[in-house]
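Memo to structure team: turn this sequence into structure tokens by end of day. - J.P.
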Amino acid sequence: MEVTESALLAACREEMAGERVRAGIGTLGEKTQHAVLKRLFGPEEESREVKVGPYVADVFGEEGIVEIQTRGFDRLREKLTYLLQAAPVTVVYPVPQVKWLIKVQEDGALGPRRRSPKRPGPWEILPELYRIKPLLGREGLTFCVLLLEVEEYRLERPQVKVGRKRTVRFERMPVSLLGQVWLRGAGDYGKLLPPGLSEGFTAKDFSKAAQLSLSGARAGLNVLRALGAVEVTGKKGRAYVYRPLYSV
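Reply from structure team:
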């Protein structure tokens, strides 16, 4: 299913109109972003939190199972293997492409809203895909990368010593839908290459273009090479040189 801006905003309104708003931001066991995306992909209440064998699927509807996962794909490996025996599975991976940071003081007062300078893209999913590489290409497995504008609430921790993080993230709330990338087959993975790459690039070049760590970039290139989105054309010193197998 393709996601629309209007559907996302409706899911936000419905989620925030109920118990979550009465309880207050960050006070419930389930985070708002996860709850909103469950409602987006499973509008009918009975389709959410469905028992499938020893697991609970986020959504199980007419089009199959939807799992919303922001990180820790290694913990998803066994669950996905089981769920794929029951129905097609779509893994939804939200990326905060535009992020507004809001500090929450100890007394609950909100600080000014400021924009994060980072602008991640759909390639953020690549290091996580490496964790479930043996499952990639399995029939019935689809990935949906949602590019979102979000508000991120960070709790101030004045007691923390200098040099350590003085705030901790405890809530994200979607504001708008900026785009979506669907990975339904090996031919779609070229969409995860960031713009600005030359015909011959190294893992270091990829790391800079994607704003990923070098280890994350190497893991991502391993995935892209396995799925036929890039190929190795040679070496530059000790570094492999890659070529995209589609027009960048």
